[in-house]
Design a protein that fits this description.
This protein has helices spanning 71-76, 86-94, 100-103, 108-114, 120-127, 146-149, 171-174, 228-236, 251-269, and strands at 8-10, 25-28, 44-47, 56-59, 62-66, 131-135, 141-145, 150-152, 155-156, 163-170, 177-184, 191-199, 206-211, 218-222. By secondary structure, it is of the alpha+beta class. The strands form 4 sheets. Strands 4-5-10-6-7 form a 5-stranded antiparallel sheet. The chain has a 4-stranded antiparallel sheet with strand order 11-12-13-14, with helices on both faces. A 3-stranded parallel sheet has the order 1-3-2, with no helix packed on it. A hairpin with a 5-residue loop joins strand 6 and strand 7 (141-145). It is globular. The model has no long low-confidence stretch (mean pLDDT 94). This is FAD binding domain-containing protein. Residues 1-174 form the FAD-binding PCMH-type domain. InterPro entries: Diverse_Substr_Oxidored, FAD-bd_PCMH, FAD-bd_PCMH-like_sf, FAD-bd_PCMH_sub2, Mopterin_DH_FAD-bd.
Length: 274
């Protein structure tokens, strides 16, 4: 879609963009959402793709993902053999309600900052205990835990002119056992709920991440595997106003799914058969 309010596109911003941020500005990366709807409040686009940020850097520290990394690039990543969650990265890419053409343009950072409940890049980075590096217009930077970044439907902690620069996933999380559950109303539909559980090798701990069914990511952490009642009580303790309500699912339905899938996950990681 043409955005007819735009009067300027900054094609070659400085290496640390944002010092001249003003009302009506927007960061431009893949643009798959930006150009999908009217944006009457925007006047200027600042193109981040020209900055040439590294897309993916794997090493002993873990995985570093540049915010402008495309979904296609992440999907194609060949992970080290000891990164047991490698397939989970691809599964999360497949959770997009998007065609391969969108994959070639849409970015990991763009999906995260949109802060939509069904954003799969939010799901996987929160589940894998990532941190986000944010750049401020004054040249400073800060780091936030992925689980704290999204605060509500389409709301996040970014201040005006602040930008998501990088996502860091620690190697310890990449080596964990995992399982996941996802429900959609149609085969290729938007997620009604997306849950990922991880477990430290040689331990019986549990880190359960709920997204899509809630307005922001919810994590339930246990030092040892809980019994069925304890886990159900933890799910039931999620505040009623946190469950998301849209055409893809009512809050009570999403709550029911979370209970059901949480027990399946518990039994699976405890070594039984769901």
């Amino acid at each position: 879609m043409d955005i007819n309010t735009i009067t300027e596109v900054v094609r070659h911003p400085p290496d640390r963009p944002g010092h001249d941020w003003r009302d009506g500005d927007a960061w431009l990366a893949g643009g798959t959402w930006l150009f999908s709807d009217e944006q009457p409040h925007l006047r200027r686009l600042i193109d981040l793709t020209a900055l040439g940020w590294d897309s993916l850097t794997a090493g002993p520290h873990g995985l570093q993902i540049g915010a402008t990394c495309t979904i296609r690039e992440l999907y194609a990543l060949v992970t080290p053999d000891d990164w047991t969650v490698g397939p989970l990265l691809r599964t999360s890419c497949e959770a997009f309600l998007a065609s391969f053409k969108v994959w070639n343009s849409a970015t990991v950072g763009g999906n995260i900052v949109m802060a939509l409940p069904a954003g799969p890049m939010i799901t996987v980075t929160v589940a894998l205990e990532a941190t986000y590096t944010l750049w401020s217009p004054d040249g400073t930077e800060r780091t936030v835990d992925a689980v704290d970044f999204v605060t509500a439907n389409n709301r996040n902690v970014l201040a005006p002119g602040e930008i998501l620069r990088r996502i860091d996933i620690p190697a310890s999380a990449l080596r964990k056992r995992y399982t996941h559950r996802r429900f959609t109303l149609t085969k290729m539909g938007r997620s009604t709920i997306f849950m990922i559980a991880t477990q430290t090798p040689g331990s019986d701990d549990l880190l359960l991440t709920l997204t899509a069914g809630t307005t922001h990511p919810v994590q339930l952490a246990f030092d040892s595997m809980p019994d069925a009642d304890t886990l159900r009580d933890a799910v039931d303790a999620i505040p009623a106003d946190v469950w998301f309500d849209d055409p893809n699912g009512k809050p009570d339905h999403r709550h029911h799914l979370a209970r059901h899938f949480a027990e399946e996950i518990r039994v699976e990681l405890a070594g039984g058969t769901p």
